Amino acid sequence: MDDLPALLRFYRSLSPLVVRAYRPYGYDVTEAALRDGPFKRLAEGDEYAFVIADAADEIFGHAFLSRVRSQEAHFGIGVHQSLLGRGWGRRLMGALMEGSERDLALRSIDLRVLKDNVAANRLYGSFGFERTGELTDAADGLEYYLMVKRCAAT
User: What's the predicted TM-score (pTM) here?
Assistant: First the structure.
């Protein structure tokens, strides 16, 4: 699988609603942003990621932990609109959390989530994330919860 073009196609296929909730690389994802961001961090051992892909290697979901070397990782997950509400986000997040517990010695994982994204807030809470604060992003004017999961590893 040639991951960079496949991941770029995934990001470019997302609906405006999904992009509003999940845009770790901005609104207009480019090949350079992926190459110099997650692919560079993966090569350097500072990112841990999973994807949902079909038999043709088309990606329909992406979950990642970045800053893993610091042991205080940042989490992100996105699922294609065609899979929303079908449990794929939970499966993808479960695989990422299970794998990270096995492979990484993290102290904590942080994230930020739109306040009005009820499904994501419920999902994150079910995986042990707790709200630690709130913010209104100056760039987009949207309101977010800040959340953290304390990990067993030290």
Answer: 0.89
| pLDDT tens, position by position, 51-88 | 999 999 999 999 999 999 999 999 999 999 999 999 99
Percent helix, percent strand, percent coil in the chain, to nearest 5: 40, 30, 30
CA distance 60 to 54: 8
Q: Are strands 143-150 and 130-136 parallel, antiparallel or unpaired?
A: antiparallel
The phi and psi torsions of 79 (rounded to 5 degrees) equal -130, 135
Report d(CA 7, CA 41) in Å as an integer. 15
Q: What is the token pair recorded at 13?
A: 């296929």
Rg of the chain's alpha carbons, rounded to an integer? 15
